[in-house]
Amino acid sequence: xxxxxxxxLDANMSARGATKEAILTTSINLFNQYGFENxxxxxICQEINVTKTAFYYHFKSKDELISEFFSFDNxxxxxxxxxxxxxxxLAEQAIKAMEIFVxxxxxxxxxxxxENYRVHxxxxxxxxxxxxxxxxxxxxxxxxxxxxxxxxxxxxASAEELLDTMCNLANGVILNWAMTGGSFDILExxxxxxxxxxxxx
Length: 201
Prior knowledge:
The protein is mainly α. The protein has 2 domains: 2-60, Arc Repressor Mutant, subunit A; 72-198. It is built from 11 helices and no strands. 28% of the residues are buried. The model is unreliable at 1-13 (pLDDT under 50). Residues 17-77 form the HTH tetR-type domain. This is TetR family transcriptional regulator. Residues 40-59 bind DNA.
């Protein structure tokens, strides 16, 4: 009896996760197709045949949905972690960890990136906010500190100051990229800026 109830709960939790993912994926596709402002919550719900109650169970608003889509911690896959850990240079690990967000920006495209920044500006927070991310808040600073201790980073600033500056650099480069219609290689530009900041070459 307990086993069946537990199985039912697991199935229910799995269904909720699938519904949330379906809402997120469908919404992003609709935003890309019609524009963020032109897509309504009703339209999203009709597209995947869920109730507005189901939508609001997972997301308070379209803004929250965009924030979730661009949430740093939600972007990290096992492949990303393996890619980071495959590198022995600690400074390079920190740069690769920061590049996860930049790669997601490229995959999302210019228009979704602009919307992400609009949403964050409306809510008066930065897209790369270390207080809202375990990776940004603790893992990358630890990598930076270990790289400093190993002499791989020459910049005398603290690991926390370096992370803050990396986030600000990334936000600036991403915003510039979006405002110029994706006119330059954003990965190359952010990497160059990170290497200059960290004094790794």
